[in-house]
Specification:
The chain has five helices and seven strands; from the N terminus they run E-H-E-E-E-E-E-H-H-H-H-E. By secondary structure, it is of the alpha/beta class.
């Protein structure tokens, strides 16, 4: 079983990201679960959403406490949220950022990747300058670093789920798929 945690802020499409990714994995032959956890339900408040997938039926019905991988849709969350909490060693951390963080010490023993999902969203007119909607960019990048699900499955899930503007969202996912940069494993220092 593979478990993924998304961190974002209210209004960024964090929950929709996990729904789209779950639908794409389902199209690729996986059993899936997708569910959010809300604290304060307001725009800008931290949000977590989860995906669980497996080739077999999923019987687990709990929150995700030890994810295999994490996506961070807003890099400012790194200042206040321990995005590595429970993350399994060697797991991917995908950060919405134009560059790797200056301090990578919190990410030791994890694989790090980044994509400028804000710029990609703005290039495709998704959201506004102050509130870009980065969810489809992030799932495109995530599919690339995980090498699954196929980007075409993501495009189909977007077409099915997003009625207005699905073309721009598909292009944003494809752009992020092609532009994500991987740093790889951040080694433990002596």
């Amino acid at each position: 079983m593979l478990e993924i945690r998304f961190h974002g802020r209210g209004g960024q499409g964090t929950v929709v990201a996990t729904i789209l990714l779950a639908k794409a994995f389902f199209r690729a032959g996986y059993q899936v679960q997708s569910f959010p956890v809300f604290g304060v339900e307001r725009r800008g408040a931290p949000v977590e959403a989860y995906i669980r997938l497996d080739r077999e039926k999923i019987l687990t019905r709990t929150n995700v406490y030890t994810p295999d991988h994490v996506a961070v849709q807003d890099r400012t969350l790194l200042q206040n949220v321990d995005v590595t909490k429970g993350l399994k060693p060697g797991g991917w951390i995908l950060i919405n950022s134009h560059a790797i963080p200056d301090d990578v010490s919190p990410f030791r023993n994890f694989r790090l990747a980044f994509v400028d999902a804000n710029s990609i969203a703005l290039d495709h007119r998704l959201g506004s300058r102050t509130q870009p909607i980065v969810n489809t960019s992030m799932i495109g990048a995530f599919a690339r670093i995980l090498e699954m699900p196929p980007i075409d499955s993501i495009a189909e899930a977007i077409t099915e789920e997003i009625v207005a503007g699905y073309e721009a969202n598909i292009e944003a996912a494809r752009d992020a798929y092609n532009k994500v940069q991987t740093v790889g494993m951040i080694p433990e220092t002596g």
